[in-house]
Structures are given as C-alpha cells and as structure tokens.
Amino acid sequence: MKAQTASKTAQYMAFFRALETARPESRSLFQDPYARQFLSPTLKLLVILASLPIGRGLIPRLVQREAPGAFSSGVARTRHIDDLLEKAVREGSKQIVILGAGFDTRALRLDFLRDVAVIEIDHPDTSRSKLQTLGTIMAKLPENVSYCQADFNGQSLEEIGIESNIDFGAATAIVWEGVTNYLSADAVDKTFRWTEKFSRVDIIFTYIDRKVLDHPGEFAGTENVLAYLRDSEEQWTFGFVPSALPDYLAKHRLALVEDVSAVQYCTKYMADRRVTKGYEFYRVALAWRRKP
Asked: Which is it for the CA torsion 71, 73, 76, 82, positive or negative?
C-alpha cells in the first residue's frame, strides 16, 4: 500500500458492496448503506448508474470484464462471511476482532452485532480515512465498536492486543478478510500464533490458492488483476496450498471446520445469476478452538 493513502483494494470492496446494494433489496445478498460513502466521485457515479434500470446489468458486466470474477467473488464472500459470523455469535462469541478492517461495515450494518463488542484493527492511513468518512455521516459512532490504528510493520501483535483492550479470555470470533494474500509467510504465521492466546476462538479468514502465484496462467482473468495490483503497489505475496491447510492450522491448535472456494460460495449465493468465470483461486476458511 502506498504511504499516506487508504488501501485501494478496500475501496474496491466497498464499491462491490455498493453495487450489490444498488440491486432491489429483495434480490440483493445484503444491504450496505454505508459502502458508497467510501468511494471516489467516479465510483459513486457508477453506483448511481447501476441503480437505474439502464445500468443495473451494464455496470456489473463492465466491472466483471475488467476483473473477471472479482465482483461475484467479492459480494458472495461478503455474504458467506456474514453468515459464518452470525453463526459464531449465535454459538457464543462475545467479542469480534476484525483484523485489517479496511472499509468493512459489519459493525454498522449487521443487527446481530449491536450488543457484541467489536474491535476493528487496521493501518493508520486506512483507519483515519474510514473514521473521517463516518464522522461526516454519523452524529455518533456505535458505543460497542472500537477503532484501533496499528502499524503491523512496526508493532507486534502483542502490543496491538494490549492497546486494543482485547479480552483474550472471552469467546472471540476473528474476521481476517482480504489480508493474508498481501503478507509474508512469517507475518501470517505470527498472526496464527497470536490466536493461540485465546481460550476459545473462531477465525474466519480468506486466502488465495498458492497456485495462482506460482502458475497464474492456470486461472482465468488473472492478468488484469495482477497488473492492477502492481500499479497499486498492493501485490499478492502469499497463498496456502489448500490440501496442506488442516495440518498447518493444527500446529496452532486450530481445527479446520470448512474451506470453500469462490466457485462454491458463488454457487451457493448466486445460483440465480450469471457468474463470470474467474477468481476460482480465492477461498474462505473457518477454523476454531473451542473448550470441550
């Protein structure tokens, strides 16, 4: 990420959520009334056009052509993570930690989080941009949400945990979306090691199949995506081999509960739509450590 700027990928995920919200509510996977506020004027205009009959199908198709599969994967994974998080809260999670929160708005838009402590942790540049935007549209931020700024390059997770007032004894659900693919193997390992501090934890995280880094030509539409990431200085650097994930997590005392690809979660949530091929390498996993 370029210094002193909010993440571009965070803005594009907000753009995808705003496009989904522009669909009729009865046909959308979720509603995110805040997403549009984080967008540049150009992206806001595209969302407005997408809300009109003439642009409702056209704008998403143009987006899909530019980055095949990205929009479908982005909105379907958002809904899938929402559902996994709701299940975690229903089964006893009392604290939510969102690592690398970006422009995530779950704490604002999901009713089941209203009475749960939510701690968002992100890079200072993105966090400041988010808080500035929220300050223009909300008279008061929710009392159950803490917005913590942390430089993962300059601070240890232990320091961040103390500064964020995380309760390691509370049943916790961690959302780590769209982050692992930008880190080093060591940084990913340190984060999973950090989760060992929690006595009970559900961790919902995304990752990319390592094969897309080693053999990108095996997946459709990766050329445009990788070129965009290079221009944004937000290159992908890390991926898991899916078959190796259970053993990796076991080393951190975590059990893999599920691991689904973009093909699977798009099929589950978007069976009534034409889904552009692409992003098959993107995956959502749930692992947990729970008391007997």
From this structure: negative
Residue 86 lies inside a defined structural domain of this protein = yes
Going from the C-alpha of 102 to that of each of 13, 127, 166, 247, the distances in angstroms are 9, 7, 19, 29
Asked whether residue 223 is domain-assigned, the answer is yes
Tell me which residue range forms the domain holding 90: 68-289
Q: Report pTM.
A: 0.93
Give the span between the Cα atoms of 72 and 69, in whole angstroms.
5
Half-sphere exposure of 210 (CA within 13 A, CB side): 8
CATH number reported for the structural domain that contains residue 142 in this entry: 3.40.50.150
Q: How many domains does the chain have?
A: 1
DSSP secondary structure letters along 33-47: TTGGGGS-HHHHHHH
Q: Look at residue 166 and tell me if it is in a domain.
A: yes
Q: By C-alpha distance, which of 280, 286, 209 is closest to 254? A: 286
Closest to 273 measured CA to CA, from 32, 65, 23, 12: 23
Instruction: Return per-residue pLDDT of the chain as tens, 292 residues.
Output: 443 345 678 889 999 999 999 999 999 999 999 999 999 999 999 999 999 988 888 898 888 888 888 899 999 999 999 999 999 999 999 999 999 999 999 999 999 999 999 999 998 888 899 999 999 999 899 999 999 988 766 677 888 888 888 999 999 999 999 999 999 999 999 999 999 999 999 999 999 999 999 988 888 778 777 777 777 677 889 999 999 999 999 999 999 999 999 999 999 999 888 877 789 999 999 999 987 5
In the beta sheet, which residues pair with residue 242? none
Residue 13 belongs to a domain = no
- In this structure, are residues 183 and 238 in contact, taking their beta carbons and an 8 Å threshold? yes
262-269 and 70-90 helices, crossing angle to 10°: 80
